[in-house]
Amino acid sequence: MARNTTKKTARKSQPSNDQRVRLVLGALVVGVGALVVWSSQHDKEPSSSDEKKSSSAASSSGETTSDAGTSSRSREKLPRLREASSEFAVLTDKSPEAVAKIADPEAVAAHLDTHVCGSACAAVKTFVLDAESFEVETTTADDYILPPPESFDVIGSSLSRAERATIATRPTVVVVRTHGPVTNDQLVARAGFAATAIVADALGGLVYDETERRIENASQFAAHVITVPLGQPVFSPKQIVIQLYRQEDGTARLLTLGMARYGSPDFMLRGASMRAATSLSHVVNAIANDVVAGKTDLPFKVSLAELATMTGKKPTELSKAPAASQPVAVDAVPAERTEGDPDNDMVELVAQSSPDWDEAMANLFGEPPDVVHAAFDKELEGVAGRARKELPRAVQRFERRDGQLYVKGPFPIPGADADSDQVEWMWVEVSSCDAKGCSGTLSNTPGYATNLSAGKPVTVDRTRVADWMLRMPDGGITGGDSIEVLRKRSR
């Protein structure tokens, strides 16, 4: 029986994206509003301020909806949730008639094919037709309460500018929800991804994943579908997000989003140096892969070989000394929450056999983690060359008050070789320019140039400007070509 309904969707409000400055690592999607890092390969769109995250005195055991585990800091097994669940919203501007043809369980089931569910389509179809497990709801964008337009550059960073401009113009939302028992076949996730991909494709829709706080087009979302046979590992790093925060003490904090669709609490990890963040994201993905495959015994054992399998690389590509690598044992303990964290169940991952994550990563990789400082490639060099030629006209427009000017420049990392190119590229909100340079305040919170902070007065030599951008009074943007280049690469 069709269950297509139209009703107001009551949902919890979410922290603003300004409060959730992040770098997406798990899915390798770099948000433009994310934390700026060290090289030309990562970027951040300037913001007049970066909100700091303060620690909350409250602590959560991550067990409020889980069946297993204890409240002590020592467990033998990772707690699992009582059920797995997922929700996706397809934003569309199609007619009500077109929406009605696909926003129905029977219609979705009829469209299921191997391109979205592989050889498991029969099981997925049975799941979709079960009214206790699958729901399609049609509502309006106003009733669904989408994030504010100022967040679209962040949550829609993988979209083109033209696509992002259509987000607020799509009046209809088709919500796809799945939930059910936690099993190694992961039918909840399979059906959620498959059904949403079908609906998005039929309606030319954009998919908003509130759990992971991102919007993708139908083609991008289709990359998450699970087509492996039942009984085989289903996890892919593309299916979750790992957020990276720089804590006030300069250390890294990683947090996953999306593990609930596999019946698992999300994972939090903290206290490592920022230079270890990429290596740690591989560890988190490896543990997520084990959990999705049904492993819950603690501690988890992560090896360099497992990381190589997860990343599709050879151990020699991950480490200069693979022979010196030692597996790391990882425990899961109650997570201490921070202001702005989602309400998701979560546990903290801790290195069991090392005093801190930096030493654990040094053991795992056979060498201390280091920052790879990538030089500009030909495409970004071209952007920088054009930016320097166009900068005088941009400065003139700024001086005429046509808009607020930002320039991107290099800032040395403390401790780096003075003759090296080990710098962090960051945006500066300009207050004035002369023949030699542009001065203003640092628009980003540094990840590696820890001698600086957001809002600090700085100057960028005009000969070293890598990009410029004018933010117009109406909110439009001119310039910022490097941002678009990096957006395309992040897809």
Automatic annotation (TrEMBL):
Top-level taxon of the source organism: Bacteria
Signal peptide residue numbers: none
The entry's keywords: Membrane, Transmembrane, Transmembrane helix
Species of origin: Labilithrix luteola
Name of the protein in question: DUF2314 domain-containing protein
Pfam families, alphabetized: DUF2314 (PF10077)
Sequence segments annotated as region (Disordered): 1-20, 40-83
Amino acid composition bias (Basic residues), ranges on this chain: 1-11
Regions of compositional bias (Basic and acidic residues) in chain numbering: 41-54, 73-83
InterPro entries: DUF2314
Biased composition (Low complexity): 55-72
Positions of transmembrane segments: 21-39
Domain DUF2314: 404-489
